[in-house]
Amino acid sequence: MNQDSVKAMLLDLENTSLDFSVIFTGKASKRVNGLYKPDTLEILLHNKNFSSDGQLVYTAIHEYAHHLEHEKLAERMGGLENAKALSPLRFHTTDFWARFHRLLEAAEEKGYYKLDPRVSEELGALTEQIRKQVEQNGVFMRELGDLLIKAQELCRQEKIRYEDYVDRVLLLPRNAARAITRASLFQVNPAIGGENMKYVASLGPEEKRKAAEAQFLAGKSPDTVRSQAGKPAGELDRKTQWEREKNRLEKTIEALTKRLHIVEENLANL
Length: 270
Known about the structure:
By secondary structure, the protein is mainly α. It has helices spanning 3-13, 53-76, 94-109, 121-157, 162-168, 174-185, 194-202, 206-217, 222-229, 238-269; strands spanning 21-24, 34-37, 42-45.
C-alpha cells in the first residue's frame, strides 16, 4: 500500500469534509506506530514499523479516527475553517474508541482489514477457552451476587452493619459488592463477562440495560456500548464546549502553578 491508496481507503470507510494528508515517514519508531497532527491535518505513519498491510491499516484507521473526532470538534466550536487552531479536549475518549471500532468493522466488511483468531489453530482454540472462562466468571459473579443478597438479609436480622461485614469480614470493596449484587438482582446475562455485567447493571431503566446487553451479545466492543448508552439527549452548544475547555485549562494552570511554587521552594532550600 502507498500513501494515496491508504487515503482512498480511509475516505471509503467514512467521508470527511476536512481534507487531510497521509504521510509515510519511511522510519521506524519505538514509541508510536503513527501520529495525527491536528495543527497540520496530517496522518503520519511510521511504515518501517509494520510487517504486514493489516498492521498498517489498523494504525491508519486509528489516526483517521482522531481526524474525524477533530472534525466533529471543529464543527461544534466555530466551523472547519478554525480546525487547525483547535487543540483536542482529550484524545482517547470513549467516543473515540467507539468510532475507531466502527471504522474497523467497516474495514472488515469492505475487505481492507481482517481480524480472525482462527487463522491460527492454536490461537483459535485458546480464544474459545478464554471465552468460556469469561462466561464462567460471569456465572460466578451472578452466584456471588445471590450470596451477598442473602448475607445482607441475615446481617439485617442479626442487627449487624452489612457495610462493616463487607469491609472487614469479606474484605470486599463496597463498590464492587454493590455492583455484583446489582448484576444478580437484574439477572444480567453472564455470557458478556463480569466487567460488562457490572456496567450493564449500573444503567438505569430496564430498556437501557437490555439494549446494552444485546449489543454486548452481538459482539460490540465495551467502548461502543458505553458510547451509545451514555449519549446525552442533545449535543452541547458551542458556548458550553468553550466554557468547559476554559475551566479545564484554568484548573490545569492552577495545579501546575502550585506545583511550580513547591519546586521553587524546594530548590531554594537546597
